[in-house]
Structure formats: C-alpha cells, structure tokens
Amino acid sequence: MKNLGKQFEQAFRKSIPISDKIYYYRLKDTATSYYGGNDNLRFSQNNIADSIMFYNGNFLSYLFILEFKSHKGKSLPLNCIRDNQLKEMTEASKKTGVRPMLVVFFSDAEKCYALDIEDVNNFIKSCDRKSIPIEYFENNAKEIVTFKLRTNYRYNIEKWLEEY
C-alpha cells in the first residue's frame, strides 16, 4: 500500500483540470525515498520540492513550486520540511512570478491548505514551536476546497488557482 503522502500527491495531480493554462510536472523521487529515507546514501540528490506547476492566468502567470505534506493531527511538525527545501524555496520566492508553497492535507480535519514559503519563514521567526498549528494555516494559507470520494479525495485546483 502507498504511503499517505504519495496518495495525497496522486490525488492532487488527478484533481488538476485538463487545460492549456496549466502545466504540471512531478519531480523524480530521490534515491533516499526508496531506501527508507536514508539521507546518507551516496549520489542521492535533494529536490527543492515534489512538483512544479505553471499556471497562465487571465492577467498573470505563476510558477508554483509545490511541496506536499499529508499529516494526521492538528499541526505540521517543522522537521517534515528539509533544510535544503526551506532554503531553496525561500531563494526561489525572490523571483517575480515564482510561488513556492507547502500544500498540506490535514487528514483528521479533511482540510487542505497552500501556505506560501514566506509565511512558513514568518512562523519560524516569530515562534519557538516545533510545529505549525492548523490555526496558522486557517489564518495565513489559502484553503484548497476538498471533496471526499469513496476512499480518496479530490481538490478544487481550478478555484484555488483562479484566486491568484
């Protein structure tokens, strides 16, 4: 059985509408993900995120750099975000039209949020907590409307993108 994170990524991808305005690409998994998360593997690379998505909106275009997290409970542990991801996504956010974000599905609450990497950095600077509570997502992230199917979920990606 796939892990919940991979199921979430797949459900998100299946939720993207077929459109000439959206290009989605899932970055290849590193060798570490195949060997139980062993970061000491020789020749393993660390991707900036899980996927990239280009959206050509009516007035503006964006390149989204998306890191997916699926988590039970009411907060996202900060140790779920690798240091290189935080650093590289922060650097990318300085470019015009680039939107690095954490896309987090809280499975217990059945809620999905897209949190800009700058808001992640603001949380880290202003708090000494070791996890980001769901309330922070509710107040600072964009909610991605979630629909429960029989066993999986679908996400209203089109509505989320149109809000940009």
List keywords for this structure.
two-stranded antiparallel sheet, alpha+beta, Trna Endonuclease, Chain: A, domain 1, single chain, 6-stranded mixed sheet, 164 residues, globular
Any idea how many domains?
1
Subunit arrangement of the protein: single chain
Query: Strands across the major sheet, in which order?
Result: 1-2-3-5-6-8
- Number of helix segments? 5
What low-confidence regions span 5 or more consecutive residues with pLDDT below 50? none
Q: What's the overall average pLDDT, rounded?
A: 88
Structural class: alpha+beta
Q: For the record, what CATH class applies?
A: Alpha Beta
Question: How is the CATH topology named?
Answer: Trna Endonuclease, Chain: A, domain 1
Radius of gyration (Å) = 16 Å
Overall outline: globular
Largest sheet: 6 strands, mixed
How helix-rich are the residues, as a percent range? 25-40%
Strand percent estimate = 25-35%
SSE pattern, N- to C-terminal: HEEEEHEEHEHEEEH
β-strand number: 10
Overall description:
By secondary structure, the chain is of the alpha+beta class. The chain has a single domain (4-162), classed as Trna Endonuclease, Chain: A, domain 1, CATH 3.40.1350.10. It is 27% helix and 32% strand. The protein has five helices and ten strands; from the N terminus they run H-E-E-E-E-H-E-E-H-E-H-E-E-E-H. It has helices at 4-15, 83-92, 117-126, 134-140, 157-162, and strands at 22-26, 51-56, 61-71, 75-77, 98-106, 111-116, 131-133, 142-144, 146-148, 153-155. The strands form three sheets. It has a six-stranded mixed beta sheet with strand order 1-2-3-5-6-8. Strands 4-7 form a two-stranded antiparallel sheet. A two-stranded antiparallel ribbon has the order 9-10. Strand 9 and strand 10 (153-155) form a beta hairpin.
